[in-house]
Amino acid sequence: MNRLLLVAYPKPYRSRQGEEVLACLAEAYPGRSWPPPREVAALVRAGVQARARATVDDTTRPWWLDGIHLAALALAALALVPYLQDVWHWALRIDPGQHAIAFRFSGWYPWAEGPTQVRLLPYGLLPLGCLIALLRGRAWIALPAAAAMIWAGATSPGRTLFGDEGKAGLGYYGLGTPITARDLALSGALCAACAVLAFCRPSRLRRRSYRWLAPVVLAMSVAGSLHIISVSPAFQRGWFALEAAALIAAWVATDATGDHRWLIPVAAVAIVRTQAIVVRPDAFMQSFPDLVVLILLTAPLPALAFTAQRRQGPALTE
């Protein structure tokens, strides 16, 4: 089990010092397959810092381009989350029946008609395709997928390509903030980010392994098997914990390097979600008080900026 902790470290570090770290853990905690929680947190923190330093040391691309790439990945994941169950059911030809994600359509698609009309594809395929293309550094493929998300949200209901769920279905509800596909701020920001990536030296984009899709597939299988929808308490708590972990990782990376690239995805997600609260306050689920949610959304931005500035101060004096 100790080898799982090494995943937090970059591959060159694992090749050089992985066995040494495992030997130290075996000597410090004999007979235990897993170190104490404090040691686990310290190892993961050190791994995030090592990955952050390796990213900053790679000068093949400017920091702002890498930041926009991270922002596009975060926005694509944000758009995909509400439709994990839907895409899983469609891919395996599972009839969701009464477990359809609050969509009027509940038939087995595209081979059976539901209460309204048949659809050909689930809307979630668009952000999923955009996410896969961005992971592989193919912004020219992600751009039309993001543009199709805008088209699906802007067109009137009744089309049979994605059905009605792309417009009237439930959207993202992390921290009680609903973002439906009809809200074009998310898809518009994603399309803008993909356009920048596609026209600003796309060959320099970082290409990540398909192994990064493993958490997405796992989330799809869990959501599809357990019928966890985006309004369930389990979804709310799980996604909140994941967001908190991502923010902590961004802070650790910024504190270790003083680089501003991790501020860009945090700012993009915060702006999109804050816009959803301001524009549609009536749709707010009140899982947290409004002021608490707005503080949680906006507080990480000055915190990350201050951390980067503080970290860069000693480096400049040296």
TrEMBL record:
Keyword Transmembrane helix tagged: yes
- Membrane-spanning intervals of the chain: 63-84, 118-135, 140-159, 179-200, 212-232, 291-308
The reply to whether Cytoplasm figures as a keyword in the UniProt entry is no
Q: Which UniProt keywords apply?
A: Membrane, Transmembrane, Transmembrane helix
Which superkingdom is the protein from? Bacteria
The protein's name is DUF2029 domain-containing protein
- State the taxonomy lineage: Bacteria, Bacillati, Actinomycetota, Actinomycetes, Kitasatosporales
